[in-house]
Design brief:
CATH class: Mainly Beta
CATH superfamily: Fimbrial-type adhesion domain
Order of helices and strands: HEEEEEEEEE
CATH architecture: Sandwich
Number of domains: 1
Number of strands: 9
Shape: elongated
Structural class: alpha+beta
Largest sheet: 6 strands, antiparallel
CATH topology: Immunoglobulin-like
């Protein structure tokens, strides 16, 4: 009797091992059935490294302007120059594009955010091209100095005339992209 019980135990162990082996093989086939192809997508871009912005803030003081000089439509103050400098441009950066953005009024010029009314701000390059909201200006980087400069001029303008006294203030943001 001991022998037959022992045999039953051996048979049970064999069946358990066979069952475990069969279940293991089935589980492997099930997981391979659910396996999917994998797509690896790699994105990137090669870009020019930025220059160092030497002129991080440019404050232009228009001084005191007199209302009697800004009564007529199209009357304007004197031009005031400002230069935006970029230095330490890495080798390989050949050009810089400046994009000008600011709040405009119905005239298309930059809106005076101060208290004087009927006043706009006009920004130009030194060639006389208006640099209104959204306009871009591209300049080459000097290969020997690895720098570039944006010479600009700004003035107060009364498109419709009839300027009233008060403060003049506008903020024009400049964003640079590099090529």
């Amino acid at each position: 009797m001991n022998f037959s019980k022992r045999g039953d135990v051996m048979i049970n162990k064999k069946w358990k091992m066979r069952t475990a082996l069969i279940l293991g093989l089935i589980s492997l086939s099930i997981t391979s059935t659910f396996a999917a192809d994998v797509t690896v997508t790699v994105n990137g871009s090669v870009v020019a490294k930025p220059c160092t912005v030497a002129t991080t803030t440019a404050n232009v003081d228009l001084g005191d302007l007199y209302t009697f000089n800004l009564v007529s439509p199209g009357a304007a103050s004197q031009w005031h120059e400002v230069t935006l400098d970029l230095v330490n441009c890495p080798v390989g950066t050949s050009a810089v594009t400046a994009t000008f953005k600011g709040t405009t009024d119905t005239t298309g010029y930059y809106k005076n955010q101060g208290t004087a009314t009927n006043i706009q701000l006009q920004l130009q390059d030194t060639a006389g091209n208006n640099l209104n909201n959204g306009v871009q200006k591209k300049l080459q980087v000097n290969d020997s100095t690895l720098s570039t400069s944006f010479p600009l001029q700004v003035r107060a303008l009364s498109v419709k005339g009839g300027a009233t006294q008060g403060s003049i203030q506008a903020t024009i943001d400049v964003t640079y992209t590099y090529q």
